[in-house]
């Protein structure tokens, strides 16, 4: 996708929002990756304050911590659940579903 946009005409100044063909929750993503990997993967929704303390404890700077927490809250609120037609429109083929991607790269998840 990046090569197409960087080398093709008509993309200067445009913003392309890339999504898969279906909005998925973090739990659905974990389940799909687990199936491909051949073992259970569980998503745990860690409370923001616990996440903050863990990241600060790991040495992440406060600015990054707050930015990530804001991003995580947007996901929790469903603000990233929209699906665009950008990928199929630009590539001329459907966007891949998570199961196909995970299966194709299962060795990386094992």
From TrEMBL:
InterPro entries per the UniProt record, alphabetical: Ergot_Alk_Oxidoreductase, NAD(P)-bd_dom_sf
Alphabetical list of SUPFAM superfamilies matching this protein: NAD(P)-binding Rossmann-fold domains
Gene3D superfamilies hit by this protein: NAD(P)-binding Rossmann-like Domain, UDP-galactose 4-epimerase, domain 1
Stored PANTHER family: PRESTALK A DIFFERENTIATION PROTEIN A (PTHR43162:SF1), PTHR43162
Protein name per the record: NmrA-like domain-containing protein
Organism: Streptomyces polyasparticus
